[in-house]
Amino acid sequence: VFLQGLLLADSPTGKQSNHADVERVREVADAQGLSPITLALGFIRSQGWIDEVVVAPTSAEELLAIYSAWRQPPAQIDWSTFASEDLDLIDPRRWV
Q: Is the distance from CB of 41 to CB of 70 less than 8 angstroms?
């Protein structure tokens, strides 16, 4: 959901952090007045075929942020604009 945390990092590092597809997520979230976590979870909520989501918060604060974002109604966005076929981005096993 959060691309190994890459979409949520305040100061991401690595070549993926400057990837055009990651930048697009940040730009759309900012333009919509949403946090990246709310945008990411909004996408998941907008997918009728997804019944459950597994997240791995590392603190109570992160869990509360996830819960709060989950409760927000999904933004009315053309989600297809976020599609990426770049395996070097979407497959963390390829991150070097």
A: yes
| pTM, two decimal places | 0.84
If we measure between CA atoms, which residue out of 81, 84, 57 comes closest to residue 69? 57
Q: How far is CA 7 from the centre of its chain?
A: 5
**Pair 2, 8: CB distance under 8 Å:** yes
Q: Are 42 and 32 in contact (CB under 8 A)?
A: no
The span from the CA of 39 to the CA of 14, in Å, is 22
* pLDDT, tens digit, 9 for 90 and up, residues 34-48: 999 999 999 999 998
Q: Which residue from 45, 37, 42, 27 is spatially nearest to 65, judged by alpha carbons?
A: 37
Q: Hunting for tokens 């697009």 — which residue is that?
A: 24
**C-alpha span between 66 and 58 (Å, rounded):** 11
Count of CB atoms situated within 10 Å of the CB of 63: 13
